[in-house]
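Example (one chain per record):
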Amino acid sequence: MPSRRYPDAEEHPARVSSYATARVKNCAYSVPTQLINAHLLARVSETTVSFHHAGVEVARYPRALTQQARIDYRHVSASLVRKLGAFARYLYREELFPRPVFRQAYDQLFAAAPAQADRHYIELLALAARTNATLVATVLGACCARVKYRAPTS
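Predicted structure:
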């Protein structure tokens, strides 16, 4: 037997990009926007990836085994509200639909008023981040059910 125990997790340095993401093993993970340009320590175990700044854990995700990004809307929604047009150009935009009802709501907003859909949707995400996402999803579901939903045509 070895004299020392094998570590439970690998540690990797990670820098936070301007998109509020840190890349570990070719996968992007979001962190709070206050940490843009900060250097973090990523601890990668078999099942999780956690990010630490100044010894404090700032984010934890199930480990991505593919290169699909792991973006938490709570990390970026407040920043996107302040920047007009940022949602339309956001690199990980498709990751910002935490539940199918949020996607339905966006599609209905876009069908009703394409010019304002992004702004209204980001405000909904910010509301879900500040309050109770389950409650916001429930209300969105009720609103979407009242409006006859038609899937957008390509």
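Caption: The CA atoms of residues 40 and 54 lie 8 Å apart.
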